[in-house]
Amino acid sequence: MTDFTTFGQQQRPQFEAYLEQALAHQLEEPTLKKAMQYSVMAGGKRLRPLLLFAVLESAKLPIDLNAMRVAGALELVHSYSLIHDDLPAMDNDDLRRGRPTNHKVFGEAQAILAGDGLLTLAFDWLTTTNLPADKQVQLVRILAQAAGANGMVAGQVEDIEGQTKQLRLAQLKQLHHLKTGCLIEAAVEMGALLADLNPIQKAALLTFAKYYGLAFQIQDDILDVTSTAAVMGKAVHKDAIEQKNTFPGLLGLAGAQAELEQTCQQAQQALQSLIGLDQTLLNSFLSYFDEQENK
Ligand code: GRG
Known about the structure:
With 295 residues, the protein is mainly alpha-helical. It has helices at residues 4-26, 30-40, 47-58, 65-86, 102-106, 108-126, 133-147, 152-162, 169-194, 199-232, 234-242, 247-272, 280-284, 287-293; strands at 95-96, 99-100. A two-stranded antiparallel sheet has the order 1-2.
């Protein structure tokens, strides 16, 4: 039986080798190439590709070159979103994954263009697999809807607007559903499409992804509080809890932890309703949250 950690260790090297050679082979303009490679090849968990691969694995299907390219498209969009999110006009972050952010290295204009290049390249990749044309079109539509104006971009808008007002819990959940959940759901939906799953299996997987994405965000907010407390002491811990528009801010730390647990249970229940697929690997993706809590 493979668990999330082992699966990640097995899959990341070949996926990253795929990304590296595809970018090296396809990109021409040297400055843009460096800036795009800098962010895509900067590590990260590769969570969205791993989710897509795990859906294939649950259906006992091979992770072939088509799957690599489709998962690659997801990772390109994710990388673009992080580059743009870090820009001075957005979160104004200097560090990402322990390294200077893209705009700190290449300048703001090149970072914007690197993001533009990655977003566009993702759709190029989706239309250059060996899959039938109708599947390619469906993949393009799933990714465009998840990443676009009714998905991740809308989430970013709500996030920016939320900086000046207090959100209610339902609004906070909606914001995160758009900002991070949609792309996580797209990863699972694209996997389901590649695996030719039936509508009932697809619906169960999408429900799993919905709760998984939410759990991911609740945990990110909890870790912000607990890691700040660990590094800076209790006073900052209190400040971090009181941050508005976070799960600990709205529910308190214990309340956010209870919400995380309940959300993980809902994700698990969705998997239990899956018929005809091996749910063990996807289920183990939930243990990631326990592992992070105990770090
Ligand atoms: C700029 C249109 C636009 C969108 C940006 C996804 C996003 C929207 C911003 C990310 C900001 C952020 C820190 C969100 C919290 C969720 C989170 C921890 C995202 C980072 O995704 P991971 O953890 O990143 O999968 P790695 O580094 O593992 O790839």
